Amino acid sequence: MKSKKIGLMLFLMLVSLFLLAACSSKNSSNEQTEKKPPATEANEENGKENVELRVVTTMAGTDPAGEVFQKVLDDYMEKNQHIKIINDSQSADAGTIRTKINTDYSSNNEPELMFFFNTIDADGIINAGKVVNLEKAEGVDLSGYNSMLEQQRNKDGNIYAAPQSGFYEGLFVNKKLFEEHSIKIPTTWEEYELAIEQFAKTDIIPVAASTVDSYYVVEHYALAAGGIDHYQAKLSDQDSTWAEGLDNIAKHAKMGAFPADAATLDLAMVQDLFKQEQAAMIFEGSWFWGQLVEAGMAENVTVIPMPVYGSGGQTGEIVGGSTQGWFISTKSYEDESKREAVVDLFNYLTSEEILLEIVAATGQPPAKGKLTDLPEYIAAGHKLVADAPAVDLPINDRILPEAFTYIRESVPSIVNGTKTGEQILKEAAALE
Amino acid sequence: MKGDKFYIFLFLTPAFLISGIFLYYPFFENIKLSFYKTDGFFNSTFIGFDNYIRLFNDEIARGSTLNSFELMLYVAIFQVGIALVLAIMVNSIKRGAAFYRITFFFPIVISGAAIGLLFTLIYNYRNGLLNEILINLGFERVLWLTEQSSLYMVAIPTVWNYVGFYFVIFLTAIQKIPQDYYDAAALEGITGFQKMMKITIPLILGDLKTCLVLAITGALKIFELVYIITKGGPARSSEVLGTYMYQKAFVDSAMGYGATLAVFMVVIGLTLAFITNKFIKNDKLTY
User: Fold this and answer.
1) Are the beta carbons of B250 and A212 separated by less than 8 Å?
2) Chain B residues with beta carbon closer than 8 angstroms to that of A19
3) Where in chain B is the domain with CATH 1.10.3720.10?
4) Do the chains contact at B233 and A416, CB–CB below 8 Å?
5) Which of A200, A286, B144, B263 ranks highest by number of CB atoms within 10 Å?
6) Which CATH number goes with the domain that contains A382?
7) Whether residues A194 and A288 fall in one domain
8) Predicted local confidence at residue B73, as pLDDT
9) Would you state the torsion angle of the CA atoms of residues A55, A61, A63, A65, taken in this order, to the nearest 10 degrees?
10) Which domain holds residue A92?
11) B52-88, pLDDT tens digit by residue?
12) ABC transmembrane type-1 domain location, by residue (chain B) (predicted)?
């Protein structure tokens, strides 16, 4: 009887132990063995060892490239039966992709390939040596790129990310609504303010914008007030034109430029207002075309640069560049059993043919080759970039995320008169 | 007895280990993190009490704390109060009690995110349900989420979401009261209101106190409804500690300061639980 009890006790203890052991994140040799079978078993068809690769990108959710990307991966797996790819992509909309990526890399669970922001967001990963210098990586093909590749060069002189496409931001206007209300599409600051005034008198919202998720609004108002030279200032410079731009948002809010509930709307909701033709203008990026095509209204829309009135600047200067790229994790590159497959997949995804196939879904300017047979509206966007006297990255790609969040989330306080643009910039700079 | 102790130890060990690993270890790690300026991943600098000094000088944290307390008040009064009234009413009806029980309990099974989305669509200025009704009745649109109203507007779904939980606790407690008490009181000519005040409530006081402690401490965890409906706005007017902590830790990558806010929330929660328990001592009732 006693021995039965002891047996039961031991059994329960063992179960508990196994349960806890199963939760362990340690990269023990057992785990290696568990994960290895696919890599060690030779594929029957081509005799190569099976390999499992995980790819994390932002091509998911509302991103129209998501579907094409999955198809491209399926094609690759079809041709390479020994390679299994796990597409762990997640939309960039909510910003949580940053936490996911950082968690993966800091917990030794990095994906083999990653398509991520090559901005301040990747600094920690790069500085920790978690991704490879592509110029030194054996077998990596970086040929055929346009100037976007050079834009990826890190301050340490290396290239860690291979671009896929560029982007631009601008003022998307619904031509149909402008025509119906006999309002001129603005090309100057005065015309922009006049369009706001005129639409505010109608049931149409002049500019679909969120004053809390005010990323693009903040950038474009800062650009309008100072031109690209001032736009490129650092936060610590406390450039007066940035403050002026923030105060202009409040001025225009009082003119009725934005939705009445702009302080509680998110980006998806303001996009809906524009897509439902309840708003005449919206500040967005070139990725927005995909949604407009889906909504069946792309033909009625055109994109124009934010009118710049600040001295020294000129209308045509835009926010844009190439901030995302393909990274190879050092861990996967140093893993002999995976290196060949990782490099091969990298070269496949960044080859001109595949790159253009993915980029065509969004209509963004490609980092290699050229998109052909572009619809008029997409071509207008590409022309915007080609004609731009100056292009610079979004503000949030170069300042501390906490400081930028503080600025954009404080816009409603500027609108209600509690704070001024100058005050907000000073308080944001103190966070740096 | 000796054998019992051994089994107690044996069966509690897994639970103790699991809470230790998944609850207490992260909690102490969180306390450690609050002394660092860190994104939680690659950049970390020890800064001593700087995050705590920042917390006490942070205007937004102060506003969020006050908003959390205000929400706590609404939750304690209305969630528990409405649940009590509903439970007494449902207990006193003879037909349809099952229907009301299910109806009042139903919101509990809907996720907070779904309720948040539902109320976002109800309050939406341009295309929301309330304004569509007003427009169809010939009125002007109303801005439901203003700096003055946003906290009330968030309190409504918060209260609605959890009323059913307390309702079930009260209903069960009321149903445990022996019928003899009511019969004896009926012979003395007691009215319905007196029955509630002099028999029902005094006899379920213990449950009432438990519900109050749960409601008060639970109010600190309010997050998803605020995050989805108002995003803490307009102009931070409905920011609560949960949403502010989330923003700092996960949007701003200021994990150290986010951890400090988390510690602050735990301190408030423990203090309130202690105070509530101290003030409302439980006298055990047996029927």
Assistant:
1) no
2) 14
3) 34-279
4) no
5) A286
6) 3.40.190.10
7) yes
8) 93
9) 50
10) 44-166+322-360
11) 999 999 999 999 999 999 999 999 899 999 999 999 9
12) 65-276
